[in-house]
Amino acid sequence: ASAGTGFDLSVCVRERIHRLGGVQSHGTLLAADPESGLVDTAAENTGSLLGAPADGLVGRHVTAVLEEDDWAEAVAASAEGDSVAVTLPVTAGAAGHRAGFDLSVHRREGLVVLEFEPRDAEDAFRFAAFYQEVRRALRRLRSAETVLDCCRAAVAEVRRLTGYDRVVAYRFEGTDGPGEVVAEDVREGWEPWLGLWFPATDIPPQARRLYEENWIRVIRDVDDPTARLRPERRPATGTPLDLSGAALRTVSGFHLEYLRNIGVRSSMSVSLMREGRLWGLIACHGAEPRTLAPEVRSACELFGTAFSMQLAAIAERHRADALERSGRDVAAVAGLLDEDVDASLLRHESAVRELVGADGVLFMRAGRASKGGLPVPEEVVRTLGAYAAHATPDGVWSTDRLPELLAAGDDAPPVEGCPAGVLLLPVGRGGDYLAWFRRERPTPREWAADPAHPVLVGPQGERLTPRGSGAVYRSMIRGRSLPWTARERAAAVEMGRLLTELVLRHADDLDKLND
Ligand code: BLA
User: Fold this and answer.
1) ipTM > 0.95?
2) What SS3 string covers 185-225?
3) Share of the chain above pLDDT 70, in %
């Protein structure tokens, strides 16, 4: 249980949000076997939307509600990718929906999952111009030169395309960490969220994994009654149908409560990815129920993909720039060193530190340490060798929170005088390394909720505490240094290359002397 609240947050982590057994009731869902065409699962509202009650549909051929041609097309389209949604305008079922449905199809658990959303007659007209707008939005994104520019362009464009009242770019710290609102486009009169941090528990890990797979989710109305699936549990699996890939998937009651709590009636979010992991979200809120037609959903999803590619391109450009600039600096410092590497490093330790903006430096060579600047406790030095083995392919290992790493796992007491940041690179063969250190830099942080107590138990049972700038909670982040930048890592890598050369040459010379 989380301390003092009586609420067990592990409930959130265990909830199987992809198998909640229901869909949002403005649309409806069928799952049918691609071979036999027999309906396996149906949402309970097929009666009102498609004119054939769910209980009678299960076990019957899907052509009871769908034209033969449309079914054939759905089977073919969904065969191309396991979770690729395609949209076919179809006319199905009840007379009230002769304008037709948008049908999205994908495969899951060996079934063709069919999602029907009533199509507004005016939509077709509106989408004629929509394509141009999407192109314009993508162009704006592509011209962004920094990550922040990218986020600002994204929130403005997504708000314009969708009409939500608030659109934010929300960036995570670490894979399952808390996050910060880094850009925002919001209707006048709504409270500003820019710069606010939200607790990690607001988005549990299984939701983040799901969002890495399915890049968009739309909640039309937090007060939607939900159409349950029939049968509740599939005989074949003993569980409700897996709705990971479904656009109509109903969402966790905890999250609906969260949205009600912040005065929001509808939401949409798009995953922003970086190197295969969830980097952040574009999160949208509306004061009123809001449906997004599949075209708009696809445009937003495309937008998320474009954003993620732009993020990768910007990172790559930064890396290249950094390499070029640091190359010159490093060459200058390396020029100061002579074949007595340890002694000359120590003599020029401040130049070596400045290369990466460090407070201290340590050169470990054949088990002997030469140090300069910020003193580092012996206990800490003993742990460093092991981290050298974790150096990434580019050749360095770094952290901006060493005390947290050292304390992880066991409840080891904090080491007095432990530096907060370490940038470490193996040199030559056999366990030698160069390490730079940074001291702690406490940082104030404004939270939209108390991160230690995101849930409280009151007379109505557990309640998520309010979120937003009206209830700002201030904290101080301790035990961390300024993060190491791409430029600094690149400088370290280059320094490592030159040092390795020097050390090896020196070793060769020594070998010759000993011969
Ligand atoms: C899902 N929580 C989410 C989602 C967001 C947030 C964006 C994705 C669903 C959506 O698009 O609405 C949270 N929304 C935020 C944050 C911001 C925002 C941080 O706009 C800041 C800008 N949530 C809790 C607690 C639990 C919880 C305590 O606060 C667990 C008890 C659960 N959140 C929770 C769950 C989901 C979720 C289960 C998944 C919903 C789903 O997709 O089914």
Assistant:
1) yes
2) EECCCCCCCCCCEECHHHCCHHHHHHHHHCCEEEECCCCCC
3) 90
